[in-house]
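HUMAN: I'm a chemist; might I ask for a sequence paired with its structure tokens?

ASSISTANT:
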Amino acid sequence: MIKEVAFFHIKKELLAEFEEAFHQAAHVIASVPGYINHSIHRCIETDTKYMIIVEWENVESHMVNFVQSPLFEEWDKQMGRFFEPNVTMDHYVTVHPSKH
């Protein structure tokens, strides 16, 4: 399992609509083969900044099954208008899990 971690800013004038729109569009990501789960987080210090963490079976699940599919176009059609330019995204693997 890997984690896709993306940081992005939402256009100030669309901030009130964003979280509900994301909730409505989440089924698109959830339908991708290799998707496991996701969470979205709003920054406390900067109200327009968000982080999304998506767990995938592997990098290919994200970059091929999603990004190179019509599902990505559907996602972008529903959500693209909210994002400011310069979204940053990387993939991570757990190296030291908590044992609580």
Observations:
- The CA atoms of residues 23 and 67 lie 19 Å apart.
